[in-house]
Amino acid sequence: MHILIIEDDKKTAEFIAGAFRQSGYITTLCTDGEEGAAAALHGEYDAAVIDIMLPRKDGLSIIRDLRAAGRQLPVIVLSARGTVDARIKGLEVGADDYLAKPFSVAELLARTQALLRRAARMDETLVLRVEDLEMDLVSHKVTRGGERIDLQPLEYQLLEYLMRNKGRVVSKNTILERVWDYDFDPHTNVVEARVCRLREKIDRASRRKLITTVRGFGYVLGA
């Protein structure tokens, strides 16, 4: 699942993003309000964590714009203002939850998962399927042919990205940018190594191999 984080304090943003990635999520970071608003309005995300005090455009304005555009993206507000009035204002403009700073990352993750479960009851597409391979995007459970597959967080993120792009060849460069948040380094073999491990877990016990290397282009999951 893909989480948008809009937070102008880079240390805090990286800390939050790291916690989400360790839990198997893909993250995108924006450090100012206008950049964050554009990402929230035009990107495809499963939830957003938005700070209120942002340069160029504040978080409440971003949420107002989202709701005015009909976007139902689940949003958790982060704010140093923890008063009841501030919480009410955040919820009134369309936030789904409100967390005052300083906050517990474990609580942020738990609240995000609760929002995603709520969304799952309204949207059954939160289970990805490619043939007999299934991924539950809320519980993070992955199965093939009904058998549970245990994945490391980066393996989970990589598989989710491949499943969301099933049947489409994705390049090493794109995977580095979308899954690892790295700039492209033509000499790194981190993608090849991780795909190899993932292939062993996904395809080892099945006659039908789902992950294919397209030499010179990248990787594809499914036909």
Give an overview of the whole structure.
The two termini are 23 Å apart. The protein has a five-stranded parallel beta sheet, with helices on both faces. Strands 6-7-8-9 form a four-stranded antiparallel beta sheet, with helices on one face. It has helices at 10-22, 33-42, 59-68, 84-92, 105-122, 153-164, 172-180, 190-203, and strands at 2-6, 26-30, 47-51, 75-79, 97-100, 127-130, 133-136, 142-144, 147-149, 211-214, 218-221. Helix 2 (33-42) packs parallel to helix 3, helix 6 (153-164) packs across helix 7 (172-180) and helix 6 crosses helix 8. The model has no long low-confidence stretch (mean pLDDT 88). It folds into two domains: 2-122, Response regulator (Rossmann fold), CATH 3.40.50; 125-221, Orthogonal Bundle (Arc Repressor Mutant, subunit A), CATH 1.10.10.10. The chain is elongated and about 60 Å long. Strand 7 and strand 8 form a beta hairpin. The protein is 43% helix and 21% strand. It contains eight helices and eleven strands. The longest helix is centred in the middle third of the chain and has 18 residues, at 105-122. The protein is α/β, with parallel strands linked by helices and 223 residues long.
